[in-house]
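ERR on first pass: missing label on line 2. Operator R.T. fixed the label and resubmitted. Corrected input:
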Amino acid sequence: MRRDRRELLLRIMALDFTALELNLYLDTHPRDARALEDYNKVTQELFTLRQEYQERYGPLIHFGHGFSKYPWQWIEEPWPWEMTF
Amino acid sequence: MAELYRKMQLARAYVPFQQYTRRFEPFDGLMRGTIFPELFMPYRPKEMIGRSEG
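pass 2 clean. output:
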């Protein structure tokens, strides 16, 4: 996988993890304004990067979560187990 | 702390309330398994304490 694609994917994975952690924290601290602000900031960047990734390389998540160009791109993705990080 | 300790009853779990201050950079958090510095407690190999050799 080309370097820039891999770096974009790693950034998405890292942001995904951060959003997940903030989400878990907010479940027990719903009134923590700073954590909520951070969560929305991370989610915004994540949304933008996911769109960019999918525009260039095809769907990240399937079953109606991402579009595909012609021909069907989902089967062309390198599978996660074919990649080392 | 001792005074607090005296009030602690046996067989009770205490989870102090976490206060969000700062977080690791996303990639560091992913590698460390948490974004919260206060929850990053890696198990580091240390010499065995109180075990006689051999």
